[in-house]
Amino acid sequence: MYEVSAQINGNSVIRINLNEDFEPEPQKMIEEADKNLKILFLCSPNNPTGNVYDEKLVVALLKG
Q1: How far apart are CA 33 and CA 53, in angstroms?
Q2: DSSP per residue over the chain, as a string?
Q3: What's the half-sphere exposure (Cβ side, CA atoms, 13 Å) at 59?
C-alpha cells in the first residue's frame, strides 16, 4: 500500500528485496538507496512473514 500511495502522489519507489531469510540487509539498502531518499518504510512485523526485525538492524539503517 505504501507503494501505491507514493505513486498516487507522484513519488518514485525504490524496491529493495529482503534476503533469503526475509530480513533486510542494511548495507545493501544503503548502497541501493538514492541520495534523494526522503523516507524508508520498514514494516515490522513484516507482512506476510510476521518477522520482527532486530534492533541492531534498525540502528544500522539509521546510522547508514
Answers
A1: 19
A2: -HHHHHHHTT---------TTS---HHHHHHHS-TT-------SS-TTT-----HHHHHHHHH-
A3: 3
Grid cell locating 43: 514494516
CA atoms within 13 A on the CB side of 13: 14
**Quick one: which of 52, 34, 27 has its CA closest to 42?**
52
pLDDT digits (tens, 9 = 90+) for 20-42: 988 888 888 888 887 888 888 88
Cα separation, 56 vs 1, in Å, equals: 26
In this prediction the pTM is 0.63
Question: What is the average per-residue pLDDT within 16-23?
Answer: 86
